[in-house]
Design goal:
It is built from 16 helices and 14 strands. By secondary structure, it is an alpha/beta fold. Bound molecules: 4'-deoxy-4'-aminopyridoxal-5'-phosphate. The site of 4'-deoxy-4'-aminopyridoxal-5'-phosphate (PMP) has 14 residues, from α5. It comes from Komagataeibacter melomenusus.
Length: 428
């Protein structure tokens, strides 16, 4: 059938969209998605662009292998046979979809098993699954902060959009934004708040764009001193940090001091879905009242079974954690030796500062088209203007040879495009 266009071209919203898109393009922030086919036998070493590329996709030679440098499937668990086979078995056993919301016929034994596994991973009484990490933050924070009158949420300035959505959506509560990872500022704001107000501190462990890590013990100490609860997003840490991949709170031995730990099954665990773990009364309250949990179809059992297999495997395999950090260290050493600027972080994330949206896009396009290396340009609004960057996430299967290729390509492109100058400014 013919593709229909707007039948009210004159409507102000149509013109509004057009202008907004023109502005985004003019600022070099237009986003093109590069379709990548994930090959189970080779991923994450290689991914192959689809041969039938849509016209807006950057031209990429057909059948060429592309090394992916920006995956959030940090450990490559999404294509581990133990994970994919669990999904296939669950499809045969339970079908393709959940069949309903969790309350209405959508709960399978794998859902409850995964919730128990995650609670155990974080040393909490209970766990609750959501459709994604985004939904777990949005739904949990909004529900908690509207539960009783007078909540004050102390929110780190760089918290993820999903936390902000939940905090902003909680009508009746108030929000105090504290400076990023700044305990002195947090304490000053806690001290200034009414003593008897219900307080919640919402923060992340690994901040994914800058790659820095919060002082969880320090934050929890302040929480105790001022009678606040703590809500910690460990999305970029679960699987990677802690003796069993329980995140930075596990690594630092302070998981018991955090009231609510939130995570995703889509990054270190390589599958899909979000969750919180907490005391059973909090989890039960959210299970029975959180709109974003109740009124949506449950995660497909195959996805849940895959996630469960992944969590169990990642908990056991400490070598996966050792391997990723060894790879990250090796990559940084190679960048340093070649004089390529990068932001040193205490995490597994390697930001290459560029400092300009158009240059960032260009650098990313050239890496893909000329060198077959896929990187994502990180632009405003994900990061502030002037701090645009490539965000590289070396993984367990990036070889030394691949790293050498990336370092050589970056060295050449940064020189050729004068990008080194912009980077130097961004580093200052
Ligand atoms: N929290 C943080 C800090 C994130 O970066 C993200 C996603 N990038 C989310 C939550 C949402 O997780 P998910 O992708 O599972 O929706």
């Amino acid at each position: 059938p013919a593709v229909s266009s707007n039948h009210v071209d004159g409507h102000p919203f149509f013109r509004f969209c057009q202008t907004a898109l023109e502005d985004i393009r003019a600022q070099g922030r237009y986003r093109q998605f590069t379709p990548l086919a994930r090959l189970a036998d080779r991923y994450p070493l290689y991914e192959q662009p689809e041969t039938e590329a849509t016209p807006s996709t950057p031209a990429c030679p057909e059948d060429r292998e592309v090394v992916v440098w920006s995956s959030n499937d940090y450990l490559g668990m999404g294509v581990e046979p133990v994970v994919t086979e669990a999904a296939i078995r669950a499809i045969h056993e339970h079908g393709a979809g959940a069949g309903g919301t969790r309350n209405i016929a959508g709960t399978s034994p794998v859902h409850t098993a995964l919730e128990a596994e995650l609670a155990d991973l974080h040393g909490k009484e209970a766990g609750l699954l959501f459709g994604s990490g985004y939904v777990s933050n949005q739904a949990s924070l909004q529900t908690i902060l509207t539960s009783m009158p007078g909540w004050i949420c102390f929110s780190d300035r760089l918290n993820h959009a999903s936390m902000i959505a939940g905090i902003k959506g909680a009508r009746g509560s108030s929000t105090v934004i504290f400076e990023h990872n700044d305990l002195a500022d947090l304490e000053a704001r806690l001290a200034a708040a009414p003593k008897d107000a219900s307080k919640l501190i919402a923060f992340e462990s690994v901040y994914s764009m800058d790659g820095d890590i919060a002082d969880i013990a320090g934050t929890c100490a302040l929480a105790r001193k001022y009678g606040a609860m703590t809500y910690l997003d460990e999305v970029h840490a679960v699987g990677l940090y802690g003796a069993q991949g329980g995140g930075v709170s596990q690594r630092d031995g302070v998981a018991d001091q955090v009231d609510i730990i939130e995570g995703t099954l889509a990054k270190g665990f390589g599958v899909h879905g979000g969750y919180i773990t907490a005391s059973s009364n909090i989890v039960e309250y959210l299970r029975l009242t959180a709109s974003g949990f109740i009124f949506t179809t449950a995660l497909p059992p195959a996805v849940v079974a895959a996630a469960l297999a992944s969590v169990k495997q990642v908990r056991k395999d400490n070598w996966r954690r050792e391997r990723i950090f060894e790879r990250v260290d090796t990559f940084r050493a190679k960048l340093r030796a070649a004089g390529i600027p990068f932001n040193m972080t205490p995490s597994h994330i390697v930001p290459i500062p560029v400092g300009d949206a158009r240059r960032c896009r260009e650098l990313s396009d050239r890496l893909l088209n000329d060198y077959g290396m896929y990187t994502t340009p990180i632009n405003y609004p994900t990061v502030p203007r002037g701090t645009e960057r490539l965000r590289l996430t070396p993984g367990p299967r990036h070889t030394d040879a691949m790293m050498d290729e990336m370092v050589a390509a970056l060295g050449k492109l940064l020189r050729v495009n004068d990008l080194a100058e912009a980077s130097a400014v961004a580093m200052a």
